[in-house]
Specification:
Elements lengths: L2 H15 L10 H4 L4 E2 L1 H11 L1 H21 L5 E9 L7 E2 L9 E2 L2 E13 L3 H67 L5 H36 L10 E2 L12 H11 L1 H21 L5 E13 L7 E10 L7 H67 L5 H36 L4
Parallel strand pairs: 1-6
Antiparallel strand pairs: 2-5, 3-4, 5-7, 7-8
Helix pairs in contact: 3-5, 4-5, 5-6, 5-8, 5-10, 7-9, 8-9, 9-10
């Protein structure tokens, strides 16, 4: 067989083993039958069903009730009572032992009520109300911070599925190409145009690709399972839907210093910690107010249809009560010191959290910059690998090189394509990670 006949034979084998990519393509209408899940839909489902958000919302609602409890001290306290007392001595009983009290017991039956109103406790209740209000605001910001945490986890899981699917697609295409190459080389080897060693090397490439496909498939299933757990009950995320691609984000337009300032001012978890700090300080002031006097007005009125002749049929009385704590064995002072130390510890925690936020924003900004550079370099590498693979295949078809060179070129090209797929989705994850670090993830 001369060189021209050999070239024609190779062209015929290539036409048989490498059909046109348009043959057997799936109809777009058929592809449209598969349900599509967008990132927005995944987020909405996770926000609606995730238990951590429910926990944060319930705690926020509970903290608002705490505020109402503290405010109740400013309103009148009204109570009613019904009393009936009997004795076998018509003139009454005089109790001689016990604490200081009104020792007379007379037969009577009465209905009445009492009302008391706090006039002033010199700021103690006001500080307690302020502390409760700040705690309620902190709990509300915690709901926002929890939502952002869930969104970040959903985004990472969503892009993790897309990344694993992209790698699986590259592995599947690699397996198809290597299977075709193996069949081509086996045919050539059977006609003594290639050695059996080339056929064996081609078979090794097929086995490697099959292993790659198996691992990629397992990664896809695992990534889908993670996303399904975050989204909660609903349509079958693990197998029944296709995830839509998101646009590749642009490089950050702001410097890290400005992003740090925005994060320190508006990040919800940091705002919540500051509110807790202010609440602890107001609570400490309220505890210190326990040593101050309390002035209360009170009144009582009622009727007594059964009574002793010495008393009237009805009664009414009003008065003022000034309570002054004089000595408590060091209890009040110890409580005040405890509250002050706790407030100082919360303030120190805020300072530590601010340093952590600064570090997170700067690292997220650097990682996003690196992700953009990695994607650019990965695309360049993929283009070079593709060109090298084309040249290696041409040399192999012309009989100028062995299959080892072609296998190495295919391996480099596969790695480069996987690198591009991974870099694209890592870039999306890093971009959302920066938004979370700044506190603007929505």
């Amino acid at each position: 067989m001369n060189r021209l006949q050999l070239l024609a034979f190779r062209c015929l084998v290539g036409a048989l083993l490498f059909p046109s990519p348009t043959l057997g393509a799936t109809d777009p209408s058929e592809r449209g039958m598969t349900p599509v899940l967008t990132l927005k839909q995944a987020r909405e489902r996770a926000i609606a069903s995730h238990p951590r958000i429910s926990v944060a919302e319930l705690r926020s609602a509970a903290s608002r009730q705490r505020l109402l409890q503290e405010r109740s001290a400013w309103f009148p306290q009204i109570s009613g009572s019904v009393t009936a007392v009997g004795t076998d001595q018509p003139e009454g009983i005089h109790i001689a032992a016990g604490s200081l009290n009104a020792p007379g017991v007379y037969e009577r039956a009465g209905v009445g009520g009492t009302v008391s109103q706090l006039i002033t406790d010199f700021g103690r209740t006001a500080n307690q109300v302020a502390a409760a209000r700040l705690e309620a605001q902190s709990a509300s910001t915690n709901v926002i911070a929890t939502r952002q945490q869930i969104l970040l986890e959903v985004d990472a899981a969503y892009f993790g599925v897309l990344r694993a699917s992209s790698v699986a697609a590259v592995a599947s295409a690699t397996l198809t190409a290597r299977q075709q190459l193996y069949e081509q080389v086996s045919l050539l080897a059977s006609n003594r145009l290639r050695s059996d060693l080339d056929a064996q090397f081609a078979r090794v490439g097929v086995d490697e690709a099959r292993l790659m496909v198996s691992r990629a498939g397992a990664d896809v299933k695992g990534a889908r399972a993670v996303l399904a757990l975050l989204m909660g009950p609903g349509p079958d995320v693990e197998y029944g839907v296709v995830l839509s691609e998101e646009p590749v984000p642009a490089p950050p337009q702001e410097e890290s210093g400005r992003l740090v300032a925005r994060a320190l001012a508006a990040r919800p978890d940091l705002v919540g910690l500051r509110l807790n700090r202010d609440s602890a300080r107001r609570h400490a002031a309220a505890v210190g107010g326990q040593q101050l006097p309390t002035l209360t007005a009170f009144g009582a009125a009622g009727v007594s249809p059964v009574h002793d002749d010495h008393f009237g049929h009805d009664y009414a009385a009003a008065g003022l009560n000034l309570s002054i704590p004089l000595f408590g064995g060091g209890l009040y002072r110890a409580r005040e010191k405890e509250a002050l130390r706790l407030a100082e510890s919360v303030a120190a925690g805020v300072s530590e959290a601010e340093l952590r936020v600064v570090r997170e924003v700067k690292l997220a900004w650097l990682e996003l910059q690196q992700a953009h550079e990695t994607l650019s370099l990965s695309k360049t590498l993929a283009e070079s690998a593709q060109n090298a693979l084309a040249l290696a295949r041409l040399r192999f078809d012309q009989g100028l090189s062995s299959i080892v060179e072609l296998n190495q070129a295919e391996l480099n090209q596969t790695r480069a394509e996987i690198g591009v797929a991974v870099a694209i989705h890592d870039l999306r994850i890093r971009n959302n990670g920066l938004d979370y670090a700044v506190g603007t993830l929505r």
